[in-house]
Amino acid sequence: METEHFDAVVIGSGNGGMYLAWHMAESGLRTAVVERRWIGGSCPNINCLPSKNEIWSAKVADMVRHAGILCADEDSVPVDMVKVRERKRAMVTAMVEATLKQYENSGAELIMGRGRFVAPRTISVRLNDGGRRMLTADRVFLNLGTRAAIPAVPGLRAARPMTSIEALERDYVPPHLIVLGGGHVGLELAQAYRRFGSRVTIIQHGPHVLSGEDDDVAAEVRRMLVDEGINVVEGVETAGVVGRSGDEVSVVIRTPDGERLVDGTDLLVATGRIPNTARIGLDIAGVELDENGYVLVNDRLETTAPDVWGIGECCSNHPQFTHASFDDFRILRDNFAGGDRATSDRLMPFCMFTDPELARVGWTEKDAAERGVDVRVARLEAAAVLRTQTTGETRGFMKALIAKDDDRILGFTMFGAQAGEVLAAVQMAMTAGVPYTAVRDAVLAHPTMAEGLNTLFANVPP
């Protein structure tokens, strides 16, 4: 088999990898991207954007159901999941087409197939349409992504549960959806399906949903879920599963009072992710993994193999966000041009797209306590922001952590309408290193949600 040499090969076409490939190709380097299935990665195909598309459809359904404030018939428009799915698929198709066009414009070659290392920086690709190609490269980038984890619970795999992929392809409203996992994905989809009309039960192994957040944040999110009619079961162990998702399925949970059954019709597993690093010859390439199978990288994204880098969520201790992957691209681009950027230098935000949203950047109160750092905490109820009085979206609160000995903003959390947008303003202040007083005294437009930042930071204790 003839060996083809490239200046750079990216394995996986997720966000950071594809932008890096386009940049290198436009810079005159012969560049190839090897992708098994999802052109553009999981974000535009099966994760971030499709889920937010259907979450928005669920919000529309919820607004229709509450149209009684305008004297409309609240039950006049049943949810048609086929149309929900069609709307989502149309968006995905348009984004994939735009991605393919950018490959064409950049000059980067997209190779559809499964890549496996057969020697350092040498990849054998089994093409999806038959045949093989052998590639070598001066530089290789591992943009491998992750997939949903299925816990080793007796009967769970046999029940053929949904992951987020299948949940976004339903053409019917499940009569009773059971969600295993109280993290971001589980809560977003639980609320969406409740709004589509499903009865929903969330089963959380830890003491409360959103185990990484402060207790007051998790409690407020839980109240929202319960108020929408979702059954939230926390602090239990999943002991077994019987039946088949899509028909009849029962989850055996172990509580302090003994075992009991949760009966439903459909089962969604949202208990975390595992990296796509197995069976592709990384050991042959000299790439070491951590104890959980993630690619070991340093803060410049260099792996243990010469001239091999990691990108995105397949990397150890890496935020599993598309915006983190995109910044990986910028770090690599800048460092190849002589820069000195590192992942340790960045301030990473996140947003959970429930309604209302939960957004955070920087430390939580738990983080400050674990570090032994004294902080001042300011809090403002969302209802105190006048914008919420115009929309009725009064649920939630803002919270800021300020250093005890100076005026640095160490963290910001918001659970409320437009939280992701408000977050950006605080993140910019934190990035610039300005004191909280600059945000407190800024002239912010009225009536907006961001206007609440004036009042929030005016509440900082002395």
Automatic annotation (TrEMBL):
Binding of NAD(+), residues: G181, G182, G183, H184, V185, G186, L187, E188, G272
SUPFAM superfamilies reported for this sequence: FAD/NAD(P)-binding domain (SSF51905), FAD/NAD-linked reductases, dimerisation (C-terminal) domain (SSF55424)
InterPro entries: FAD/NAD-bd_sf, FAD/NAD-binding_dom, FAD/NAD-linked_Rdtase_dimer_sf, Pyr_nuc-diS_OxRdtase, Pyr_nucl-diS_OxRdtase_dimer
Residue positions of the active site: H446 (proton acceptor)
Needed cofactors: FAD
Alphabetically ordered keywords of this record: FAD, Flavoprotein, NAD, Nucleotide-binding, Oxidoreductase
Domain of life according to the entry: Bacteria
Pfam families: Pyr_redox_2 (PF07992), Pyr_redox_dim (PF02852)
GO molecular function: flavin adenine dinucleotide binding; NAD(P)H dehydrogenase (quinone) activity
Binding site for FAD: K52, G115
Annotated ranges, domain FAD/NAD(P)-binding: 7-326
Residue ranges of every copy of the Pyridine nucleotide-disulphide oxidoreductase dimerisation domain listed in the record: 348-455
Cystine bridges: C43-C48
Cofactor binding note of this UniProt entry: Binds 1 FAD per subunit.
PANTHER family, per the entry: MERCURIC REDUCTASE (PTHR43014)
Record family assignment: Belongs to the class-I pyridine nucleotide-disulfide oxidoreductase family.
Protein name: Mercuric reductase
